[in-house]
Write a structure and sequence with these properties.
The structure is a single chain. This protein is mainly α and about 290 residues long. The protein is built from 12 helices and 2 strands. Helix content is about 45%, strand content about 5%. Helix 2 packs across helix 3, helix 9 runs parallel beside helix 11 and helix 11 packs antiparallel against helix 12.
Amino acid sequence: MDKALRIVGWASRFEVNSKGRSASGDDRKIKAGALDFVRQEVFGERLNKKLKRMMKDANELFGHGMSFAVFGLYRCLVDLAGSQKRDHRGWVLDEELQPLDAAGLAEIYSEDADVIEELLRVLSGPAVRLVEWAEFTGVSRQAPDVSGKTRGALNNENGNENGNENGNSNGNNNEKEKQDKISPDKVSVSISKDEQKKIKGVQATLQLRLAFNKSADRTCLQDIFIMATTCRKSGRFGPDIWDKMLAAGDKCTGDDVKNPVAKFIDIAKRDFGYIPQKLPYLKYRPAVVG
């Protein structure tokens, strides 16, 4: 059975009826064809908790300003989900009703698939969970929760949107808690002070050994460590990641290596979760080591 992306809480957040108004509890009144527009509650300067967390996570992972890229992708996913007919509304599918993954989305929006995949990690993370990967049979639809209580759903601190949609909050929450305990994507690793010192030491060593002398190169090295640290906290990497970085640095110092910095960056892309910043005007990063 395939998995597909779907918008969490689609019915309570975005659905409209056949007259273009906020959908009621009567499922028969929900528009059958693709939507011309979706509804979304206006918060103004008061962002709801999930959006705040999404922006915080995106900025920590990619650098300040990238939260808007994550939010932009979310709006694109909402647009795709709203273009489906009633039986598939809320799912991110192509015209053939096949699930769209990062590669498929990259083709539609002429973007890098690796970048989209990392942005999706933020949107589907346990603290944000604006989208989720769910089993898709081809004839599945999110059960209608169209009570119109959008504000309550968005501000739910316990993240129970999916449980409320199915009308069985307690049962679904218990099941979700079980899944959270066993899912590797839900791991949260605390980095000790000793490991934090090691991270700084490894970064300083590589900066000196590989001659990250230019300002742009040093910023790039910093970004590599920011992203690797985020992956470490999520459980994607183990504590040996920093030793692996040092070993990778050793491979870039041979006499046959013409550009040690460029070679290390290539290794970081392949092995250490590094995604180059594509927006050079993002200035607000923490101070570079050294």
